Amino acid sequence: MKKSDNSTITSLFEPRSFAIIGASQNPKKIGHTITRNVIEGGFTGDVYPVNPDGGELLGRKVFTGIGEIKGQVDVASIAVPAKFVVNVVRECAEKGVKHIHIISSGFSEVGNIDQEREIVQTARAAGMRVLGPNIFGLYSAKASLNSTFSASAIMPGSVAILTQSGALGIAMIGKTAVDNIGLSAIVSIGNKSDIDEADLLSYLIRQEETNVIMMYIEGVKNGEALIETLKEATLRKPVIVIKSGRSARGAMAAASHTGSLAGSDAVFEAIMKQCGVLRAESIDEAFNWCKYLAFTPRPRGKKSVIVTNGGGIGVMATDACEKFGISLYDDQEILKEVFEPATPSFGSTKNPVDITGGANSGDYIHALTAPAASEHMDSTIALYCETATFDYENLTPMIRDTYKKHAEAGKPITYAIVGGESVDKSINTLRKENIPVYGDVYEAVSCLSVSYRYQEYIQGHSRRFDEIEIDTGKIDSIIDTALSEGRKFLLSHEGSQVMSLVGIGIPGEKVTRSIEEAVEFAEKTGYPVVMKIVSRDILHKSDAGGIALDLEDREEVIDAYEAIMHNAKAYDPHARIDGILVSEMVKQGVELIVGARRDPSFGPVVMCGLGGIYVEIMKDITFRGLPINRNEAMAMIKEIRSYPLLLGARGENRKDIEAVAETIIKVGTVIRKCRRITDIEINPVMVYDRGMGVKSVDARILITEKKETDQ
Ligand code: ACO
């Protein structure tokens, strides 16, 4: 796993000298714009434009090559066509440049992987870090450095943006200007050939100027490092992510259920949640959340109150609160005491508090000042529907005033105001002042809800993780046997052996090699029993007629033994048959699936969900990046839609949920510690009543020769 080195990244954001290679006199060229933005943006370090023609540009001497510069160059921005970049990178390496930004396109994004690799190798050999290629540059408020080729000026502030899409990033700069959002940094990461999100986050989470971090991600390359850094980041400041590409196509090709269920987006979503990252669905939503989290105090408690002048909009807000899990304060006596002075007799002091359509700005000031001052309420949702009787000219000042009162009390408030042109004008004015006013109830409540979600994550978070002791030597020798026979999977009884080695209950079973042996074991175990062919050449046992269920007595076992052997030989006359597995017929319980795999982006992940034959149809599953602790395993179980089945549906007993959590921990430990196992899938895990444990009915394990390098 690659570790980010914060000390080297500091000089990327806070360089003392900056060179632009490809600095052109032509104002239409990118190299010219970057040079102008660096100089006019107020960068106080040394600026070195580089162009073979030399001369002077924007009042600065132009160097004909990077080698001609006498002083240290902390960062060089390269804006020359792709075909020249490798040479320029070599020159930078020789000069001892610390970081390069490669603006140029034309590398891995168009299939030119070799040159991109060569650039990284050259840079690494010289201890130089690479941002890009295919980027628009970087803005860092701390260094007053604008080395982007954006047309808009960038306002300094407290929001940091990392973006994989250059065009979207440039558009975001424009949007921040319109929305009056100040930036502490914006960085374009492009192809992420070397520096990635984890490296940049490692700096931004310690940088005091940054309050909120927003990331636009298309794909994750080094997911394990990202998980580590995000977990650290979200404990210090909120991180919002927008990710495009919800397709699970790549994952569908994977060999196991776990593989196909672990659609890249499902894993991404689960892992972001696990790391406390707030995932937004759209750019607007992400910006709304950013602003809200940057400028509005966080709630200290759960009790929220809705104040409205209209019943309908109040009900909509109540619905939104339920959807987002915001609790509404419910003590009728206190609500009456706090809101009665601002509520007419035909209004309602119940929550939502309805001060009615006749309310004017004075009534609103009264009603919204009350929760700011009340020790019983922690947050306020203020709603306004345009009415003819309202003194409109006072709407904007009323919101300003009540927002200030909440801010002074250290309490969050969010406003939804609905109406015509004049209401829109109010929204635009107030949003420029960073007051959280929206034209839609859902948006207003969504912003407050992320503040709650973030707060809850911080409070409930623990960095502890749980694993069990396992004898990897014994599991290794099972894997060695399978590999020596040319198999990339374990046979069913080998899977059961692994389960039994880590203490996961399995049905009593034995591979038998004669009718007598099969009968003897069945009599000892007790009827009914199940019989299955054991052959490395027969993967689909049912297709081969190699399974017999529910065998009630000695005669049925004898008949089944003969039938299975006959069917298997007819199915594949050359199949090598190791015997017939006789196992206890497992009694019914709630059928879950528990699995684990090595995700190509995030490394080892564990999965739990509703099992049985409908697993892929129901897709009622949840994931976590490993390692996890028992509380997180319990949280996974509670997250699945079928959780009520485990609580005991229709008068049934509560099931052994703790044993399921323990199974998740055990399976997670196996995938982390046995590095030649790529996939584990137990389906079904039969879950019995509380205290009665679980049983792994069928454990499928895939293996590989090479040891995966995680942990
Ligand atoms: N050292 C110094 N200067 C050099 C060198 C060198 N080794 N080689 C060439 N130059 C100079 C050129 O002489 C030229 O200067 P001039 O105008 O004085 O003649 C300057 O560098 C630029 O070279 P051009 O050949 O004119 O290239 P141009 O500026 O047209 O394009 C660029 C270069 C911008 C890097 C282009 O190749 C490119 O990749 N564009 C895409 C950039 C991009 O979009 N990146 C992703 C951003 S995100 C988004 O999508 C918005």
Characterization of this structure:
It is built from 25 helices and 29 strands. With 711 residues, it is α/β, with parallel strands linked by helices. The strands form 6 sheets. The protein has a 7-stranded mixed beta sheet with strand order 9-8-11-10-12-13-14, with helices on both faces. α6 packs parallel to α7. The chain starts with 5 loop residues before the first helix and ends in an 8-residue tail after the last strand. About 2% of the residues have low confidence. The site of acetyl coenzyme *A (ACO) has 28 residues, from α2, α3 and α5. The site of acetyl coenzyme *A has 28 residues, from α2, α3 and α5.
Provide a short characterization of the protein structure.
With 711 residues, the protein is of the alpha/beta class. 40% of the residues lie in helices and 20% in strands. The strands form 6 sheets. A 7-stranded mixed β-sheet has the order 9-8-11-10-12-13-14, with helices on both faces.
